[in-house]
Every structure is written in structure tokens, then in C-alpha cells.
Design brief:
The protein is α/β, with parallel strands linked by helices and 260 residues long. The chain has a single domain (7-257), classed as 3-Layer(aba) Sandwich (Glutaredoxin), CATH 3.40.30.10. Helices cover 49% and strands 9% of the residues. A five-stranded mixed beta sheet has the order 1-3-2-4-5, sandwiched between helices. Strand 4 (156-160) and strand 5 (167-171) form a beta hairpin. The relative contact order is 0.18.
């Protein structure tokens, strides 16, 4: 049986520019694949079994910039006051191999903690096997937020505007991700939040048309890949070349946007 292509080839495919509007059905299909693992998932789980997790250091009540907390409401309040985005980590802290991989390889690193301490409110919405990890008062709320933000797999890193309601992007896991690469992805999403786009257009009216066209170019490239993944293509040489072509198209579009 052939393994189909999923966004695990690069779980950041959910990010950036499909984020200016609610996810369309193709993006939902792409997001759905985030939770699907092909061959090797058992190996990954074994490799990360002993990895430190975000849950080890997460606050239960209250919030502070750059520190993980389960208290979504407290984080929203500070985000609104400081005009900062929120990164909401939908995780399975005690069973999800990809989650543990990201915790160890990205979130536990100094480069990430230093950046987060000044730039983002961090929220952990955990769905563990060990039900003692999450206080009962958060269990139902976590499920509602998972549905509200259309999370289909773990881990999913939902990025919200400072109002704590507007979803401006979503990132995923990846074997080769580093604090630096994840920060770059995060900045790309936040930069293209509705508020930041409006600010750029207002400050650069002469570039507004080209800027919006570049945004649409990336969005279209990502949607084309999402549509293709939605057909569940088999993993073979021909489709691998197609997948790589889609990735190149996305990168080209992102490079064009990066000129602004």
C-alpha cells in the first residue's frame, strides 16, 4: 500500500497567506492531513518518548509574555493590552511524537524563548491521555476552541491577532525545523495579519496594488497545493516531482512578496 502525500513533507504549508480569509474547503483538507502520519510514526514516537514537553513548564493560571499557559483568557487579556499576537499550541503532550519533537527542537531552545519573551503570548491547549494533566475546568473549553479554530491534527500552532479571536494563521511541525526557522514562519504570518496589511498599505499607497497582488500570488500557490493534496495522490516518482514543483511555486511567490 502506497503512502499518500501529506503536509508532513513540510508542515509549515498551512501557514502564511491562506490566512487573510476563513479557510476554504481545500485548506480544510490540507489541515486535516496534519494529523496523519505515514510509515515511521512509531519510530518517531519512540525517539521522542523521553523528550521534555511544553506541559512540563506550563502555567495553569495566569499568563506572562513568552511563557506557556493553559489560561487562555488571561493570555487574551495581556495580548489585548500589549497589542501582541497569541500562539496557541494544540498538542497531545504525553503521546504525540511530532509535538514532542517540536517541544525539544524548537520551544525548549534559547533562541525561541528569548524571542517569545518580547513578542508573543503562548497558550497550550492540551489533549493528553493522562487526564490529570489538564484541570477539569479547561477540558470542555479546549474542545470548543479546537472546533472554533478548525484544528484537525496535532500539533497545530494557531496564530491569533491581539483580540484573541481572529485567526491570522496556522503553522505545523517538521523534522528539520529550528527555532530560527519557526520564528521566521511566525513573523511571516504576523506580518500579514489584517492589521499589519492595512498599516503597510496606508504607509505605502504607491505599493498597495502590487503588495496585494503578491499576497494573492502566495495564497493561490498554496491553494493549488492544497487542492492537489486533497486528491490523495499516491507516493511515487511522478507525484514527488509534482509536489516539489508546487513547493517551488510557493517559494517563488513568497520570494516575490518578500521584496516588500
Amino acid at each position: 500500500m502506497h503512502c499518500i502525500y501529506t503536509s508532513e513533507e513540510d508542515l509549515s504549508l498551512d501557514s502564511a497567506l491562506a490566512l487573510q480569509r476563513p479557510f476554504q474547503e481545500p485548506m480544510k483538507l490540507l489541515n486535516t492531513t496534519l494529523g496523519l502520519l505515514c510509515a515511521g510514526a512509531i519510530t518517531l514516537a519512540a525517539q521522542t518518548e523521553e523528550a521534555p514537553t511544553v506541559a512540563d513548564a506550563v502555567q495553569i493560571d495566569g499568563a506572562k509574555i513568552g511563557h506557556w499557559t493553559m489560561d487562555f483568557d488571561a493570555a487574551k487579556k495581556i495580548a489585548a493590552e500589549k497589542k501582541l499576537p497569541l500562539l496557541v499550541n494544540f498538542t497531545g503532550s504525553d503521546w504525540c511524537g511530532w509535538c514532542k519533537l517540536m517541544d525539544k527542537g524548537v520551544f525548549a531552545k534559547e533562541a525561541w524563548t528569548k524571542y517569545a519573551a518580547e513578542n508573543v503570548l503562548l497558550v497550550t491547549l492540551d489533549f493528553p491521555k493522562d487526564k490529570t494533566i489538564v484541570p477539569e475546568k479547561y477540558v470542555t473549553r479546549n474542545e470548543k476552541l479546537k472546533d472554533q479554530f478548525e484544528v484537525r491534527g496535532f500539533p497545530s500552532y494557531v496564530i491569533l491577532a491581539s483580540d484573541g479571536e481572529t485567526k491570522i494563521g496556522q503553522l505545523g511541525a517538521g523534522k528539520g525545523k529550528t527555532p530560527e526557522s519557526f520564528i521566521s514562519e511566525f513573523k511571516a504570518v504576523v506580518r500579514l495579519s489584517p492589521a499589519n496589511i492595512e498599516a503597510f498599505v496606508k504607509a505605502n499607497p504607491d505599493k498597495a496594488k502590487a503588495y496585494k497582488a503578491a499576497i494573492k500570488g502566495v495564497e493561490d500557490a498554496k491553494t493549488e497545493l492544497a487542492d492537489w493534496i486533497g486528491t490523495k495522490p499516491e507516493r511515487n516518482e511522478e507525484n514527488t516531482k509534482k509536489f516539489q514543483e508546487f513547493q517551488k511555486s510557493i517559494q517563488t511567490a513568497q520570494d516575490e512578496l518578500g521584496k516588500f
